[in-house]
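User: Need the bound-state model for 4-nitrophenyl phosphate:
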Amino acid sequence: MTVRVLFVCLGNICRSPMAEAVFRHLVEQAGLSDQILVDSAGTSDYHIGERAHPGTRAVLRDNGIEYEGRARQITPADFEQFDYILAMDNENLADLRRMAPPETRAVIRRFLDFADGVSIREVPDPYYYGQPEFEYVYRLVRRGAEGLLAHIRAEKGL
Ligand code: 4NP
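Assistant: Bound-state model below.
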């Protein structure tokens, strides 16, 4: 059994690539790479084909996490192929719910609903800010990724 997890934000260059990279890193550390497949996408077409934002790349590098992905836009097929689709903010969640085919079996939730000890439920968009914001976002993403992995392991018996 492979569990497929997709992280989604607006541009797929700041928040969702960070979540993808951090979550994959935790999956690798847990020895679950064969069981859990991780990807990310944007709701918009603004940055298709681009590398992650320099702020995201820098904070990942500072934390010893590699990321080589390129931005892509979510497609209807994603709603068939992924088991969990995680929105970074309420706007992403509303967009995903609107785009989702009625028959989708994917669990579509806000990413930070899985974060323990975090009072906010949306990952702020660091696109218009500088490096401190990316570091703050990294800490939120880390908490979300830890909580999500624990949730999936419990739910899927991994
Ligand atoms: P992201 O950030 O959704 O976290 O990748 C953004 C990236 C680009 C834009 C907005 C947010 N933009 O408007 O181009």
